[in-house]
Every structure is written in C-alpha cells, then in structure tokens.
UniProtKB/TrEMBL annotation:
<dbReference type="Pfam" id="PF08242">
    <property type="entry name" value="Methyltransf_12"/>
</dbReference>
<dbReference type="InterPro" id="IPR029063">
    <property type="entry name" value="SAM-dependent_MTases_sf"/>
</dbReference>
<feature type="domain" description="Methyltransferase type 12">
    <location>
        <begin position="46"/>
        <end position="130"/>
    </location>
</feature>
<protein>
    <recommendedName>
        <fullName>Methyltransferase type 12 domain-containing protein</fullName>
    </recommendedName>
</protein>
<dbReference type="InterPro" id="IPR013217">
    <property type="entry name" value="Methyltransf_12"/>
</dbReference>
Length: 259
C-alpha cells in the first residue's frame, strides 16, 4: 500500500491522537445518523489507533467490530467484541456481510481508491452502510494571519510542499470533493457533509501540520526546503498568532440497496 505517513514513526502515536481529537466527534455523529441494526457487524479499515472501532464496540456490545490497518496501533485491553487484524486494502481479500464499513483519511492517499470503493460497497450486506471521510486540498490550507508577512508566506510554502509530497505518492487532492458522485455509482440513499474550519498555532490542527512536516523532513530537504525554514515553520505552528484555513473535510454515507 502506498502511504506517506507511518504509524510506527516516533511521532506516529501523537499523529493518530491528534486526528482522533479533530475528527472523532464528527465521525461518531455521522455513524449515529445511520439506521444501523442492533448487533451490527462493523468493519473499520485504516483504523489507526482504533478510537472509532473501540467506540463502536462499546456502543453496541452485542455487535462485532473488525479494526484493520497495515500497522494497527490499538492499545489493550480491548472490548471482547473488537477484533484487530493486519490488512492491506490494495492486496488482501475483503470479508463480506457488513452492516457498516467506515473509513477515514485513507482513500485520498491510494491510487486504487475507485476500485477499493467498489469492493467495499460489494462487501456490505443488503441495506448496509458505507461511510467515507476524507480531506480535500485542491485549495491548499493557507495562513490568513501570522506574526509577520514572511511567516504567512512560509506557512503557505510549507503547506504546498507537504501536500506535494502526498501527491507524489499517489494522493488526489480533489478526490474528496467529488466523493458523493463516486458513491452514487455504487450505492443508494447517499448523503453528504462538508466542514470548513480554521486552526491557530498550538491547536491540534497546527500540531498535526508540524508532525506531518517532521515525518516528511528528509524528503522536503531533498526537494530544496532548508533546515532553517523547517525549524522556523515548526516554531510558527506553536504560535497562537498564526491563523490558518484548515483542510475541508468531506464525508459521505451511502447504503447498498436492500433486497
């Protein structure tokens, strides 16, 4: 699987925690809006630290939750109805018969995203739901306030450079923006949400920016970004005087037609 970030990096655990703090509330709200049956069979691919999988397992103790990832980092103890497995969406077979498949910030990174969407839709039970959440960045995040104009320009440069690293490894910045049209091809009752937010230095969003830059540091240096620029960007991302637009979060849920 092609993926730009590593759960096993020194910053991997913090990166997953920040994503959970930024997004879990929205994901939980989307799932609660779906008419899932009792004792639902749920699959969470790309589960990362497993916060959503654990929440689902505790929410429905009679159900079953399978959390998969190429490198799962889910702490024990686990609920009895939560199963953890290593799984690669691009190469491994898919189990079928799911009431819910929920995947977050994975497909935008994978060149095989269309095929994976189709395979996940086919893995649902009749009437089962697929929830996909992804960030879009066809307009990269930019600073609208900063300590100095040079700092604003530096943030914008780092944002563009970081996203270039993702695109070079197969990510699609516009995928999320057309997510609903893609899901309409395979599912029914498709519904969508979009969130546009702003982050300030020191917030979970800006701390996530800093971790992403740190994980890409060697590749950014090879592409001509200087160590001084990266170090200044890391400091800037802790400064509350920095205010930035966030990635736009796009979410869609659709169901396999009932029999």
């Amino acid at each position: 699987m092609t993926y730009s970030f590593s759960n096993s990096a020194s910053t991997g655990h913090e990166q997953l925690d920040l994503l959970a703090s930024l997004l879990d509330g929205k994901t939980q709200g989307h799932i609660e809006a779906l008419d899932l049956p009792e004792a639902a069979q749920c699959w969470i691919p790309g589960a990362g630290s497993g916060t959503i999988a654990r929440w689902l397992a505790e929410r429905d103790p009679q159900g079953l939750v399978l959390a998969t990832d190429i490198d799962p980092k889910i702490d024990e103890p686990l609920p009895k109805n939560l199963i953890i497995e290593v799984h690669d969406l691009t190469t491994d077979p898919y189990r079928t018969g799911w009431d819910l498949i929920a995947i977050r910030l994975v497909l935008c990174h994978l060149p095989q995203r269309q095929q994976i969407l189709q395979q996940m839709a086919a893995a649902l039970k009749p009437g089962g739901w697929l929830l996909i959440e992804d960030w879009g960045w066809s307009a990269p995040p930019s600073a609208y306030a900063a300590p100095t104009p040079a700092d604003a320009a530096l943030f914008d440069t780092m944002s563009d450079a970081n996203l270039t690293q993702l695109q070079d490894r197969g990510a699609d910045p516009a995928w999320a923006e057309s997510l609903q049209q893609h899901m309409d091809q395979h599912l029914t009752d498709v519904q969508g949400w979009r969130y546009d937010e702003r982050w300030e230095g020191g917030s979970p969003g800006c701390r996530l920016h800093a971790i992403n830059l740190a994980q890409h540091r060697e590749r950014l240096l090879a592409d001509g970004i200087t160590a001084d620029e990266l170090d200044r960007a890391a400091a800037l991302l802790t400064d509350p005087a920095l205010r930035t637009y966030a990635y736009a979060l796009h979410a869609c849920a659709g169901r396999r037609p009932p029999l």
